[in-house]
Write a structure and sequence with these properties.
By secondary structure, the protein is α+β, with helices and mostly antiparallel strands. The chain has one domain: Jelly Rolls. 19% of the residues lie in helices and 21% in strands. A six-stranded antiparallel beta sheet has the order 1-10-5-12-2-14. A four-stranded antiparallel beta sheet has the order 3-11-6-9, with no helix packed on it. Strands 4-13 form a two-stranded antiparallel ribbon. It is globular. 41% of the residues are buried. It binds 2-oxoglutaric acid. The site of 2-oxoglutaric acid has 10 residues, from strand 5, strand 11 and strand 12.
Length: 271
């Protein structure tokens, strides 16, 4: 484990108390991030007409470009500090807001969407592809909200919402929201029960991030809801064998043959 990316006891305590942690050492230098960004277009070129970067879901299963980022030992060291020694990678999605665009991510708890149990044992790593801040629509989070239970979500009323379900005002303390600010190459970590969201990007700068989701091996996906689910053991041993195992991709760029089930759609059926 690299000493620089091992979480301190204070950082672990902060995460468990607040449901997130920022202020972590960068995963990639500015130069490395420039190279990763320069290598992104061939992945985007695999999108079909009518699709957008939002449709890049679980493409780490077929793209070494994404798989290698998701398995970066520095990222895994941070995750291990929260989840312990045995955990797998199961999801990757881009959240790209182009300059001067109106798309928002409504306030939500990831765990409400996902057919996975137990909750509270999944960490999202949000890797900044750009410098992100209050001006270009970076994420905000409600500290401590992960510890107050899962709140019923309603169908989004925003016309330009990236998600179908979100929380209604008044169901949580929006005035306590913490604004995330990250340099390209840095990450934030958040708990699957933490309330978070992000506003539009009225700025002249792109705001792009890649989310990577990791769960402890005891977490089981309900295959009847998400049949394409694949677990990629990232660290340790899987003593539970709850989930189908994924295989490392062979090519640098590719996309899964399956039409990714939108668990947001499935979740929305509950609303
Ligand atoms: O990128 C964003 O603004 C939101 C990301 C998000 O909702 C998530 O990582 O679960």
């Amino acid at each position: 484990m690299s000493p620089t990316h091992r979480l301190s006891e204070e950082q672990k305590e902060f995460y468990h108390k607040n449901g997130y942690v920022i202020g972590l050492p960068a995963i990639y230098s500015a130069d490395e991030m420039r190279r990763i960004n320069a290598d992104l277009p061939p992945l985007l070129a695999l999108l079909k007409p009518g699709e957008s970067s939002k449709d890049i879901r679980e493409w780490h299963e077929e793209s070494l470009y994404l798989y290698d980022i998701a398995m970066n030992p520095k990222i895994l060291d941070l995750v291990e500090g929260i989840l312990g020694p045995d955990f797998y990678l199961w999801a990757s999605n881009f959240f790209i807001k182009d300059p001067r665009t109106t798309a928002v991510v409504g306030w939500h708890q990831d765990a409400y969407y996902w057919p996975m149990a137990p909750q509270g044992r999944t960490v999202t790593v949000w890797l900044a592809f750009d410098d992100v801040d209050a001006v270009n629509g970076a994420m905000k989070i409600i500290p401590g909200s992960h510890a107050s239970g899962i709140i019923t979500h309603k169908r989004s009323t925003q016309t330009d919402s990236v998600l179908l379900l979100e929380l209604e005002g008044g169901s949580f303390r929006e005035d306590t929201a913490v604004q995330f600010t990250l340099k390209a190459g840095e990450v934030s970590l958040h708990d699957d029960r933490a309330v978070h969201g992000s506003p539009a990007n009225p700025s002249d700068r792109r705001r792009a991030g890649l989310t990577l989701r990791y769960s402890t091996t005891e977490v089981k996906n309900d295959l009847s809801v998400n049949p394409n689910f694949k677990a990629y053991l990232a660290r340790g041993v899987d003593r539970f064998h709850h989930n189908p195992e994924g295989r490392k991709p062979a090519q640098r760029y590719g996309r899964p043959a399956f039409k990714a089930v939108s668990v947001e759609d499935v979740g929305a059926a509950k609303a």
